Amino acid sequence: MKSLSAILALASLAARVSAHYTFPQLIVGGANTTAWQYVRETNNWQDLNPQTDVTTTDIMCYDSAMSGTASTISVAAGSTVGFTVDGNPSNLYHPGVLNVYMAKAPTGTDVSAWDGSGDVWFKVYQISAVTDGGSTITFPATGLAEVTFPIPAQTPAGQYLIRVEHIALHVASSYGGAQFYIACAQVQVTGSGSGTPGPLVAFPGAYTGNEPGILIDIYYPIPTTYIQPGPAVWTGGSSGSGSTTAVSPPVTTTAKSSSTSAPITTVKSTTTTAPPTSTGTGAAEFAQCGGQGWTGATTW
Ligand SMILES: [Cu+2]
Hints:
This protein has 300 residues and is mostly beta strands. The protein has one helix at 4-17; strands at 21-22, 26-28, 31-32, 73-76, 80-84, 86-87, 96-104, 121-127, 130-131, 137-138, 146-150, 158-168, 179-190. The protein has 1 helix and 13 strands, in the order αβββββββββββββ. Bound molecules: copper (II) ion. Its EC number is 1.14.99.56.
């Protein structure tokens, strides 16, 4: 006969299994495509668990167990694409920040057969945290059911991986606590873009896990500033150098990131922050939800 505690443990496990999220659908032309059709199926497609090791190759596309291939869809440079969020609930409910990177498959290599290794990734979009000098910190990505962003108009034609990454920071005050929710889509970018994307980083390699935006206590003391992990957003600068290697573009031509449409940390919050609320037995907003060794609430 099952004891009550065993039943509760099972219920807790079920809640834990459904308590995170994935990015299964690419959004193209304003329409959601089929789950895992153009997005490489991630290892967590069922358990929804985050990746927490920034040194593993799975910090790139989190797809080692699933063979990591998908179909490739054509998208125009300058158009808006996106990812849906799937989970329970199906939104980015953890407090955290978001990055989107792209990487161009080498000429002659089909992106579906490419592992994305090397210093090939440039950032095209981000949603950072908003601080006001220590009174509040807010996370505009929180609650999004989908994430949309433009492919920079100057992106050269070719096959690319698009990597979305939500870094949940609710248990990030110790090393390895930040939770990375990741997925990679395969696209064929069309158009006549002639920019030189950069700065370029590698996965793993882009993060050590010790960055002030990854190893951070977002609760106390309230951070006075927030530094978004990763390189600056590339907004489409053209080097005009005619480089055919594009391995290490000059950083000087890509430093302008202020024109991105993403919310940046300079926005001053004018609303007063409501105290965390709780629903039922779930955890309070921004409170811990899951994580290794966590035995408390896993929903909210
Ligand atoms: Cu979670």
